[in-house]
């Protein structure tokens, strides 16, 4: 893949930078800092998954016992690493790598789903990768983040959860389950993931990445 332009003049959402800065050099040429940062993000998310699985998810299961499909409103929590990894690194494979490493950390720390979390991580990461491929890794605003969260949710639910967890649901409940998951993917993973990336950029943690450069340029033009 050839070297791409590094800047796209566009503001895809309110509050977005006036220009989108792309990954430098060849799109597939990961830098050492890309790999290290994606791994660090993934480990942090994996630990957060363990905490969510252990202390929060059981409570949500109790709250939604009257209408189990509503429990899928929490799905977006597990999709965030793929969205954040893709928006930060901005290279093919970043979303998948971050999500899969986070799933491995979750598995090592212990969870209620066992090795199945690796299949979930694969499907969730692929969902975001598909959206980034559609925009050719050139758009990283709210629309891309939301669509990535939605695609990850759809692949996870249709490709796995419908058959593993909700096989006995009625068609109406399955559709409600899907709708809840899609909403969670859009809001928690999509908009939440984008908000997290922008917060990290403001903190200076992403100075070596396009998101950090976008923030610095936006401050310089004020």
UniProtKB/TrEMBL annotation:
- Keywords associated with the record: Membrane, Transmembrane, Transmembrane helix
Q: Name one Pfam family in it.
A: ABC_cobalt
Quote the InterPro entries the UniProt record gives.
ABC_thiamin-permease_prd
Q: Does the keyword Membrane apply?
A: yes
The regions listed as transmembrane in this protein's record are 35-60, 113-135, 142-163, 175-197
Instruction: Respond yes or no to whether keyword Membrane is given for this record.
Output: yes
* Name the record gives this protein: Energy-coupling factor transport system substrate-specific component
């Amino acid at each position: 893949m050839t070297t791409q332009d590094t800047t796209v003049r566009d503001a895809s959402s309110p509050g977005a930078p006036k220009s989108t800065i792309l990954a430098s050099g060849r799109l597939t040429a990961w830098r050492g800092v890309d790999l290290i940062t994606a791994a660090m993000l993934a480990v942090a998310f994996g630990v957060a998954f363990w905490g969510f699985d252990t202390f929060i998810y059981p409570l949500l299961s109790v709250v939604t016992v009257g209408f189990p499909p509503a429990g899928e409103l929490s799905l977006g929590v597990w999709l965030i690493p793929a969205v954040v990894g893709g928006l930060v690194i901005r290279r093919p494979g970043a979303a998948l790598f971050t999500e899969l490493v986070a799933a491995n950390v979750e598995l090592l720390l212990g969870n209620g789903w066992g090795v199945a979390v690796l299949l979930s991580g694969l499907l969730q990461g692929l969902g975001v990768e598909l959206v980034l491929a559609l925009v050719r890794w050139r758009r990283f605003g709210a629309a891309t983040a939301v669509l990535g969260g939605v695609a990850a949710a759809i692949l996870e639910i249709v490709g796995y959860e419908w058959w593993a967890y909700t096989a006995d649901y009625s068609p109406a409940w399955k559709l409600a389950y899907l709708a809840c998951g899609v909403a969670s993917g859009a809001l928690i993973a999509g908009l939440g993931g984008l908000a997290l990336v922008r917060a990290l950029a403001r903190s200076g943690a992403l100075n070596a990445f396009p998101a950090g450069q976008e923030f610095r340029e936006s401050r310089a033009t004020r």
